[in-house]
Amino acid sequence: MTRSLSAAELGDVHDVWTQNRKEYPGWVVLPEDNREHLWDFTKYWFEPILNSIDQLSAPRDLLLLGELNWRIEKTLSHYPPPHADIILQVLNQYNPFPTTYGNSGQFRPGNSDCASWPWSEISDRWLELHFAIVRHWRETLNAQRFLTTMEQLRESVKQKGDWESRWYYEYCLFFLAQSDFSRLRPFLADWNMDSVGPFWKTRKAGVMAELGQINEARQLAEDALATIRSQFVPGETDYALLSQEGWTMLLLRSIRMNQIAQDSGYLDQFTDRWEKLTSHRCNPWIDIEALERVVNGMTPPTDRQKSIKRGYHPKTERVTYHMMGETAYSQLQPAFNFLRMFEEGGIPIRAGATALFTDAVLNAAKCVQEFAPALSLSFKLRAANSPEDDNWLDLAMVGGLSDEEVGSLYQVFRSSFIEALNHLTRHPEEVGGFLASTAFRRAQTFSELLSRLAARLAEGQIEEVLQLAASVYMAPVVRSHHSLHNCQKVLFARALRAASTEHQIRILPQLLSLPLPGESGFEVSSAELWHEPFADFQMRLNSRNFRVSDSISSHESRFISW
Question: CA 310 to CA 312: how far, in whole Å?
Answer without folding.
Answer: 7
